[in-house]
Design a protein that fits this description.
The chain is an alpha/beta fold. It has a single domain, classed as Spore Coat Polysaccharide Biosynthesis Protein SpsA, Chain A (Alpha-Beta Complex), CATH 3.90.550. The protein contains 9 helices and 9 strands. The strands form 2 sheets. The protein has a 7-stranded mixed β-sheet, sandwiched between helices. Strands 7-8 form a two-stranded antiparallel sheet. A hairpin with a 4-residue loop joins strand 7 (214-215) and strand 8. Helix 4 (84-91) packs across helix 5. It is globular, with a radius of gyration of 20 Å. The chain starts with 8 loop residues before the first helix and ends in a 37-residue tail after the last strand.
Amino acid sequence: MNFEPHISKTNKWLLEFYKNLLPKVEALEDTFSIIIQGPLNQRSIKTIPEYTKYGKVIVSCWDNDNLSLLDSYKNDIKIIINKYSDVLPHAKKTHLKNPIILQYYNTSNALKECDTYFAIKLRSDESYPNLDAIVQKLRHNRDSHNTWFKIVTSNIYFRFDNQVKFHPSDHIVAGLTSRMKEIFQHAFNKCKHQKIGRLGPEEILGISSIETYFDPKLKKRDVADKSKSIELMKKHFDIIRIIDLPKRTWTSSYRKYDSLRAEEDWCHHINDIDKFS
């Protein structure tokens, strides 16, 4: 039976409009920005051609960097030059961990330039030529009613709950661009206004991810309640193991910024966050 004669002209127009709009929305929801954050480093620079395969590449560096290192790529990427003088006065106010505000500052500035659905933040002194596992996890979460807001990180220094509460990894951080913007701006503001106490950078990221989420069921923002830390971390984070990122190179100040590839004794899956041995 054909009901079309009973549909008004307005509703027919709307139906056609939404049919045409759907492919455009679906295409937008599969767009990615790769943010390379921090002082320019050959590890990430040499990986730019691989990153451009995933989407737009944004390099957020500093005004004392040698920008000529990017000459071969400047037509394929967006470059954001951050001024140390704009942020160092605030960094000096953050007790013993002065540099932690810098990551939030230049990542926030990069996110302001993102017009894609997803954003993946990477450290400039690391290299991840194959981000497929992260992209797949982001897509999976996008298509789930209960996980669309989750933040995906690597397992690098992701701590078990009884080691340190609210301690994800900050080496790779990925999620909806809208969520990422809120989280990194919130983290920056916490540092700027001296509201971090003795927290480390990863804890600030973890708490900011929780505090910026408005739960539609509870009709209020989540609170980083330590008595519910396990539940909250499982709710807000997913972990991708670096062994699932081929040809990776990671590094750490604890390891004198040497080129590293192997995993260590970290939390490798979010469901294991309460299983420290």
